[in-house]
Amino acid sequence: MKKIPIFMLLVAISSFATDLNERGYIRAMYLGAKDTAASAIGGSIGIAPSLGNFKSEIDFFTVAPFGAKEDAVSKLFSYDKSGYSILGVAALGYQKDGLSISIGRQKVTTPLIDMDDGRIVPNLYEGVSLKYDIDEKTRVEAYYLTRMSGFWSQIYGGEDMGHFVSMSKAAGYGDIVSNAAVWSVGATHKSQNSKLTGFAYHSPNLIDLLYAEYQTSFAINKDSSLEFSLQGTKQNANGTLKNYLNDRDKTLNQDYLAAKLGGIYKELSVYAAAAKVSDGKGRLDKNMMNVWAGIPQYTVFNEHVMKSFDTDGAKLYKGCIGYKFTHAIEATASYIYVDALKSKGVADTGVAEFVLSTKDKNFSLNAVLLLRNDNNENKSTMLKSTIEYRF
């Protein structure tokens, strides 16, 4: 990316804009488990000035862990105990008649490439995005993303989350394919009671991903409704990485298919979901379903995603019940059960999650308790709390 010309244009638009549209947030978090606990505070401050149809965005992010005695614990929020600051968003854009184009560092929200804003600083991306609303029901999107930063690049690639690295390095295959980017196209169509979404992702010499989802709902009466949805993902390596894995009798081929049925009655909501993951026959190199921070699967939690379990060939189940005490206060209780493939000799896993949260226009607070049991062979507890103010 040519950073200097883009930054000069950002400064120029900011100079002539009549409104800077200041924005930001302050967030504090705590994550604690047995013999491990970490806290951090941070947030962002930025502006989004515009000049006619030309738009720009600039956001600085920072995070400061505290109370952590080891760098390994600090990695929940930062690469080490010193924390980091980053110019995470620096984009120039154009908007007119349903068309939106953005070039530079930006936030991206798609099913399999996403911000996953579950820490202090979200996952951020560098590249080009295009969105076009054909009409009020149909949107098409296209992306060319070269680099990313954030928590997930550390999980898969061991990279410093405060630096932008190539999409292949973030995926943990930078030593095989050093600078792979990702192309993506997608579309969403909404009708009165349904929604259809499809996305394709192609990273040359790295990986191909497909995503599809269908959602529908209908009202029973004024107080209650039913919802049903289907979801599927498909992935496989290509080019250089595929040849590398084939030589080692490994693969990245993996499919996920899930269904979800739910209902709402006044302030009460419930749903149940079931999923099946394809069997790699012992050849799966790694679970890549959440590699670029996309976590859309029905059978996961924010802190227990597909990578948290041995899901190769597994069946997964999830149930959830929630209740809104007021428009701002809600409690939920959920449970995931992972029925592992017996031939692998892996223990089945159950995870219970309890959440109490409150949220208004500017303020939010939540507390999350997670209880994990690996077939009574290993038990763990995690407590997570977040407080945030947005402006």
Provide a compact summary of the structure.
This protein has 391 residues and is mainly β. The chain has one domain (3-390): Porin, CATH 2.40.160.
Counting DSSP E segments of at least 2 residues, the number of strands comes to 20
Share of helix, binned: under 10%
Specify the CATH class: Mainly Beta
Q: Main sheet, how many strands, which sense, barrel?
A: 18 strands, antiparallel, barrel
Domain module count? 1
Mean pLDDT: 92
Q: In CATH terms, what is the architecture? A: Beta Barrel
CATH homologous superfamily name? Porin
Segments where pLDDT lies below 50 for 5+ residues?
none
Q: At the third CATH level, what is the topology name?
A: Porin
User: Which structural class do the helices and strands define?
Assistant: mainly beta
Termini Cα gap: 30 Å
> How large is the count of helical segments?
5
Shape: globular
The ordered H/E elements are: HEEEEHEEEEHEHEEEEHEEEEEEE
Strand content: over 45%
User: If you compute it from the alpha carbons, what radius of gyration comes out, rounded to the nearest whole angstrom?
Assistant: 21 Å
What can you see in these coordinates?
The protein is mainly β and 391 residues long. It has one domain (3-390): Porin. It is built from five helices and 20 strands. The protein has helices at 3-16, 71-74, 151-157, 167-170, 239-247; strands spanning 23-33, 36-47, 50-51, 54-66, 84-96, 99-106, 124-133, 138-149, 165-166, 182-190, 194-203, 207-219, 224-237, 254-265, 268-277, 315-324, 329-339, 349-359, 363-373, 379-390. It has an 18-stranded antiparallel β-barrel. A hairpin with a 4-residue loop joins strand 16 (315-324) and strand 17 (329-339). The mean pLDDT is 92.
